[in-house]
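REVIEWER CHECKLIST
Item 1: Sequence provided? yes
Item 2: Single chain? yes
Item 3: Sequence as submitted:
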Amino acid sequence: MREILDDIERWRLNNRRIAVARVVNIEGSGPRDPGASMAVNEDGEVAGSVSGGCVEGAVVGEALAILHGDMQPRMVTFGYSDDEAFAVGLTCGGIIHLFIEPLNW
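Item 4: Structure as written out by the authors:
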């Protein structure tokens, strides 16, 4: 999370809405360990990584849906047998669980 704090602070100072995605659990092989974080601002700018690239686009989409929608946090899961996850490139054979929430201040 530390690697994204400077970006979060800069976006916050520019009055951007921000969502943070965190890996909360992995089953089997996963691209990043629990605790890996990614921040997305309302303009689609990204800081950090939750998957080393394999599902980042889908996570950005989920974060933007939160920021431009109901602002409600949600759990999302990607796994090798999940058609959507396979389509976005999660081929490591495991399952990753992410918690995505808007930052409020």
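Item 5: Key structural point noted by reviewer: The chain has one domain: 2-102.
Item 6: Recommendation: ____
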